[in-house]
Amino acid sequence: MTIDEIKSVSILQWMRSNNYGEGTRKGRNYFYCSPLRSERTPSFCVNTAKNLWCDFGSANKNGGNIINLVEQLNPSWSEHQVLSYIEQQIRDLKLDFSEDYNARLEEEEEKQRWLEGKRAEREEQLNQETVVEMVVPLSHPYLRDYVIQRRIDYSIAQRFCKEVHYSLRGKRYYAIAFMNVANGMEARNKLNKRCIGKKSISAVYPGGTPQKHCCIFEGFFDMLTYVTIETWMQGTGICIGQPCDYYVLNGVGEVKLLLPYLKEYDSIHCYLDNDDAGRTATKTIMKAYPDMAFDESCRYTGYNDLNDFLVGTGTK
Question: pTM for the whole thing?
Fold first, then answer.
């Protein structure tokens, strides 16, 4: 479940569902006796237009969204505990998301479909002019340096990736190659990234056979980041701590292609980008598998994606 989804849940509905009462209405504001402290005259205001709360009777006039409220009610909880609690409340109490939020998501989905269509047209044109000369084990020193700059364990990159050499319009190129289920490949180096061949998702089974759990990533560098963290940085709270299969979208436009692959899993963990496109893709997966899918982007809050988190920590 995404952060924006959680924020969009009605604070008024949450208050009423948790037995704080109906509140006293004054226009678009509802007043309660503060749940954060003891008082007789209601000064805790919930504004339904902005879906925000403010405790006017407190010294600092604390306020914010529903996440901030649960944090104030449970000051000893971690951010992960707060978000997990609210997610469970949304499921148990059947809390609704705001109409404005759902409309914005539909608009974002339409925009993303248009962008992916344009990208596909461009990739098709490039593919018609591309000649793959060879695909070999990853070994080029410049590609090795690029992997290391992204804080990825190079031996892990060699395990999951190859090296492609190709020519385009009379010029020769080389890149890290990550294969997909349609025998195409994501080709990436420091200066460029593209798809060679048919665009599709990638499925990786590290254990050799399907596991009961899986993790989903937007790009293959995020998957390599996850494996690097799991191998060398245990205890960070990033990984789920269980053997799992990996799926890489290679672009959020492929999310619906991914859905049939997920039906056999006990749990599905979404490690997608902290942007509108990533949140929309996560919502699509969670809507298809509401009891099995989990939004794990809260594990790297403040970073755009999982690799940004690894680079930003300066660890390893």
Answer: 0.64
